[in-house]
Input
Amino acid sequence: MEEKKYTKYEKARMIGSRALQISMGAPFLVKLSEKELESIGYNPIEIAKLELEKGVLPMTVKRRSSKAEA
Output
């Protein structure tokens, strides 16, 4: 399977958007035990980072191609 490479800006946008969803009550997309949640302090940003690492974020990135503009 092809590994997706994101820029630091794309990662920041995806993590921030997902963390907002989590903080508003969206269900987690990774299984976390109570102990794991306590260790990260129930932090939505850390949960979103874990989801990104596991590749389960329900988001896509659209990039412009310089060839498409020509």
Q: What stands out?
A: Residues 8-58 form a domain with the Eukaryotic RPB6 RNA polymerase subunit fold (CATH 3.90.940.10). The two ends are 31 Å apart (CA to CA). The chain is about 55% helix and 0% strand.
